[in-house]
Amino acid sequence: MKTLYRKKSKPSSRYLVFTSAGDNSNLHLWLNGKRNFDLWVIYYGNEINRYKDESDFYIARKGGKFPNLYYAYNTWSDILDHYQAIFVMDDDIIINANDISRLFDIREQYDLWALQPAFSREGKISHPITQVNPVTTMRFTNFVEVTCPLFRKDKLDEFMNVFDPVLVGWGIDWWFLDLWSSEIEGKVAIIDEIPCVNPPASAKGGKREIDLLQSEPERRENWEKIKSKYNIQSQAKGFKEF
Question: Which of 147, 172, 187, 235 could link 113 by a cystine bridge, Cβ 3.0 to 4.6 Å?
Answer without folding.
Answer: 187
